[in-house]
Amino acid sequence: MTKSTFTILLGGELTVTERLREALEGSRFIAADGGMRHAATLGIEPELWVGDFDSTPPGLIEAQSAVPRQPYPAAKNETDGEIATAEALDRGAERLVLAGALGGERSDHALQHVFHALSLADRGVEVLLTSGAEEAVPLLPGRRLLDLPAGSLFSVIGFSELEGLDILNARYPLENFFLPFGSSRTISNVAEGPVAFSLKRGKAMIFARPYDLTGA
Predict the structure, then answer these.
(1) Cα torsion at 87, 207, 199, 187 (round to 10°)?
(2) Statement: the pTM of the whole predicted model exceeds 0.90
(3) Do 170 and 198 form a contact (C-beta atoms < 8 A)?
């Protein structure tokens, strides 16, 4: 059975690529504040638009007047992106694509998207963060396969000590590896095709650049 997918349009950078279009296939959409600007680029109309609209130009509100808006005060306890993901989960989302989650002018927001994705993964929600050119997925205890082109760059960033880390089908493979918190050992690896990961203990994010073949 296909998982119910929702894409959250966030305010960071977004480049339309073939991998992005594949990731969004069959998705429903919710826009978070200024992330609505990506809707026209993607050729879609979100079913909901949430936020305090402090980063949304008036012209965009006029252009997307048909989309139902759910406004929140600027002085609130959650980011617009977190509100949007909560709305998606309430509507039955089992898989989330956070489009525009990486890069942009606000590093604090991009980092918060990463931590929020880890917390969602802890709850069993499948999450992909993407800018189109760059992707990130949580790595928790267990196994996962990431379909990457041969020669593309990827890194594993530990958000704790990592125990029993395996990275297979990569230029620099690891088996049952202990990665201290803060170590750069797993930065800038090169895929030799789909990469298999497994982890016994800890939390990490895999950042990948599928179109960057400078490591080939």
Answers:
(1) -150
(2) yes
(3) no
